[in-house]
Amino acid sequence: MGLQQMWRLVWRFNSFKRTDIILQHLRMSKHTDAAEVLLERKGCAGVITLNRPKFLNALNISMIRHIYPQLKNWEQDPETFLIIIKGAGGKAFCAGGDIRAISEAGKANQKIAQDFFREEYMLNNAIGSCQKPYVALIHGITMGGGVGLSVHGQFRVATEKSLFAMPETAIGLFPDVGGGYFLPRLRGKLGYFLALTGFRLKGRDVYAAGIATHFVDSEKLGMLEEDLLALKSPSKENIADVLDAYHAKSKIDQDKSFILEEHMDKINSWFSANTLEQIIENLQQDGSSFALEQLKVISKMSPTSLKITLRQLIEGSSKTLQEVLTMEYRLSQACMGGHDFYEGVRAVLIDKDQSPKWKPADLKEVTDEDLNEYFKSLGSNDLKF
Known about the structure:
By secondary structure, the chain is α/β, with parallel strands linked by helices. It has helices at about 5-30, 60-75, 100-105, 110-130, 145-150, 180, 190-195, 205-210, 220-230, 235-250, 265-270, 275-285, 290-300, 305-315, 320-335, 340-350, 370-375, and strands spanning about 30, 35-40, 45-50, 80-85, 90-95, 135-140, 140-145, 155-160, 165, 200, 215. The chain has 17 helices and 11 strands. InterPro entries: ClpP/crotonase-like_dom_sf (IPR029045), ECH_dom (IPR045004), HIBYL-CoA-H (IPR032259).
């Protein structure tokens, strides 16, 4: 056999081996189109990795369509004791839904604007009702849709790099993905404040606010995950014990008080009002620099979004998660048919001039009749579980 022939054989054998190894990997875990989300069985757990680091792991409809059935399978699988969800790339868990794509689809009247919200909210509900312990590692930016993928699960682990916000009123939307359920259930009126202003919480404050259940120093996150995966047929209590142990040992900002602690009494009093006009009056009357700062922020938001959001939270405070998601689906479709969402996306994400022209531009012009239209049943198009 000549040398050339021999090399050819070796090359063919190696490339066959490579192909075989690749196929084996694919069989072991479901890596989806361009692997935007990785779904893997590891140890005792099903692991979901949001894998669009360039886009801060923003959630699109194809990711939702891969996660939902796999979550349901793992929930039924007697060999899966735990579900872990995390983001790739270290910068973000998930910075939200792919709002730009939804805006373009909505403008073109494509069905995806209906399907995206419907399927996203179905996934939020599946997480909220999941029978298996669900651990979200909310390291990095966690906003909007990323909050929906984490906050309804049993365990949420923040790190010093966590950044939480629900900034939807700035883009003509409202804090959806079950925001109407979890926000009014935070202590006092904290959730109302976060929803209307889009205020950002960082690091240990995400835990102090009650959004995360545990706090772990980010350098220990890999070890925490390994310890969870190594558990043998764990119960919910076993999982909680591991998380509690890591939480107890975390040192970063251990003695720092909650960033809003000194303002909580005022926040509770200002945001107890049942109308936006009254909240604004409360802030004006207070006149402190913190109050005036919030006033400035609120004045930039969509007046329609602000009024929708306040009513969403007041109504959501006494509804179940499913009832809230049904209500929010109605609101999402009304926003898709309105003006402010497209204008907000233009000003914040496309042209980035940060000066949206809201319609109506004044709170006084958003009437109760207008609001009722947003909350109206969609009949046979309502979200059903």
